Amino acid sequence: MPKNLLEALRAITVVVADTGDIQSIEQFKPQDATTNPSLITAAAQMPEYQDIVDQTLLKAKKDAGTGASQAQVVSLAFDRLAVSFGLKILQIIPGRVSTEVDARLSYDTDATVAKARDLIAQYKAAGVSKERVLIKIASTWEGIKAGEILEKEGIHCNLTLLFGLHQAIACAEAGITLISPFVGRILDWYKKDTGRDSYPSAEDPGVLSVTTIYNYYKKFGYKTEVMGASFRNIGEITELAGCDLLTISPGLLTELQNTVAELPRKLDPAKVANLSIDKISLDKATFDQMHNGDRMASDKLAEGIDGFTKALISLEKLLAERLARLESEKVTA
C-alpha cells in the first residue's frame, strides 16, 4: 500500500522544517529546522511567541546596563532573538538548527566570521554544542570565504541564497557542511524572464539546477550536503526525492502528508558514476566571471540579500516598539 508522500520522502531524504513557527515544528517533527530573517520576523509578530520576544528584550535591557539607550538594548536583543528561537526549536528536534548571520554583513568576510563566533558562543552559554548549529551565510564569495574559516574552526555552515553552480563549487571546495540552493526563487526568475506561467516539474529550472549541483558533488566525491530549499509546489519536491536534505514550509509539508502516492527516487549517487561531467577549476576571477555571466544568479543573490536586510530592519523596528511598550507598562504598573 502506498505511503503518504511525506512518509515516503523521509525514507530517502532528510526532511527539514523551513519555519520559525515552533508549533509547526512540533506538528511535523522534522530532523532539522532552518530559519531566515523573514521567518523570524514573522514569528516574532505572532502572539504565541510574545514571551520569547519579551524575555529576550528584558534580558538584553538588564545586560546592557542602566545607562544603555533604547537603540543599544534593541541591538543586543536583535542579536539574541534568532538564538532564542533556535534554543526553543532545539528542544523539539533531534538534529540541527540553522541560524543566520546578519545579511548586511554578506560582503564582509571578517565581520561575518566575528558574528558567527558570537552566535556559537551564545548557544554554548545556553548549553548547546556547536555540532547542533549550522551558521547560515549568503553565498557571496566573501561569505563562502568566511564559511571556509569557520569550518576549519569546527563551526559548521549552511551557505544560503545559492542559485548557480559556481556558488556550489566554491562552497564544496571551501569544505562547507551544507548548501541551500533556492529552487522556487529560480523558478520565479525564469517565469518572469520568459513570460511563462508554469513549467512541468521535471523541466522546472530550479529542479534542474539542484539536480546539476547534486550530480556534480556526487561525481567528484564532495562531502558538502545539498539541501534543496524555497519550494513553490510539491512537484518540485518529488522531482528532488533522494536529495541529501530538503527544507520544506509547513504548508507544503501538510500537502505531502495528505497525498498518498508512489514516490520514485530521482536523485541517487549510484546513478551518477557514468554521467559525463566536466570538473571546473574555480578561483575568484572564475567565480566572478561565472556569476556576472549568470543573470539569474546575480539578480537573485542581490535580491535575496536585500530582502533579508529589509526583514532585519523590520525586526529592529518591531523590537524597538515592543521595548517602548514594556517600559511604558513598567512605569504605569
TrEMBL record:
This is Transaldolase. Pathway: Carbohydrate degradation; pentose phosphate pathway; D-glyceraldehyde 3-phosphate and beta-D-fructose 6-phosphate from D-ribose 5-phosphate and D-xylulose 5-phosphate (non-oxidative stage): step 2/3. It comes from the Bacteria. It catalyses: D-sedoheptulose 7-phosphate + D-glyceraldehyde 3-phosphate = D-erythrose 4-phosphate + beta-D-fructose 6-phosphate. Belongs to the transaldolase family. Type 1 subfamily. It is an enzyme of class 2 (transferase). It is found in: Cytoplasm. Transaldolase is important for the balance of metabolites in the pentose-phosphate pathway. The keyword Cytoplasm applies. CDD domains: Transaldolase_TalAB. It comes from Dolichospermum compactum NIES-806. The gene is tal.
